[in-house]
TrEMBL record:
Family, as annotated: Belongs to the BlaI transcriptional regulatory family.
Cross-referenced InterPro entries: BlaI_family, WH-like_DNA-bd_sf, WH_DNA-bd_sf
Stretch forming the signal peptide: none
Native source organism of the sequence: Streptomyces olivochromogenes
Name of the featured protein: Transcriptional regulator
Location of region: Disordered: 1-22
Length: 132
């Protein structure tokens, strides 16, 4: 095994892009303020090179998952929303990709537990509650 292989292993095995994005998103969500790529790399414990972190952050910014502001010669990145907000965005994206929204929403509603259905009715307001 050559030096390059050991260096690669020391920085972690190959992971799917989504897995790395989730890991970095978690770091950013736990931070009290926006972080530069160097700060993200440091908090990851050296698992990724600086250039890999920059690439992933740039990709996430392009996907509109992060905001960025200039800090010195680098950008500092922050999530556009919290974890529930990202889950809601994913749900909305799936819904928007389907041609029959009514069928998708009906299947989704049918699959909810009674507790979740009651919660959804509550969140939608009094007009959505059939008992009122």
């Amino acid at each position: 095994m050559g030096l390059d292989s050991r260096d690669s292993q020391a920085r972690g095995s190959k992971r799917a892009n989504g897995e790395r994005e989730s890991e970095i998103l978690g770091v950013l969500q736990q931070a009290e303020a926006a972080l530069t790529p160097g700060e993200v790399a440091e908090r990851l414990g050296g698992e990724l090179t600086y250039s890999s972190v920059v690439t992933i952050l740039t990709r996430m910014h392009t996907k509109q998952l992060l905001t960025r502001t200039r800090r010195g010669r680098a950008y500092a990145y922050a999530p556009v929303t919290d974890d529930p907000g990202f889950a809601a965005r994913r749900m909305r994206t799936v819904l928007e990709e389907r041609p029959d929204r009514e069928a998708v929403l009906a299947r989704f509603a049918d699959s909810l537990s009674d507790t979740d259905a009651d919660l959804l009715r509550h969140l939608l307001g009094p007009d959505a509650d059939p008992d009122r």
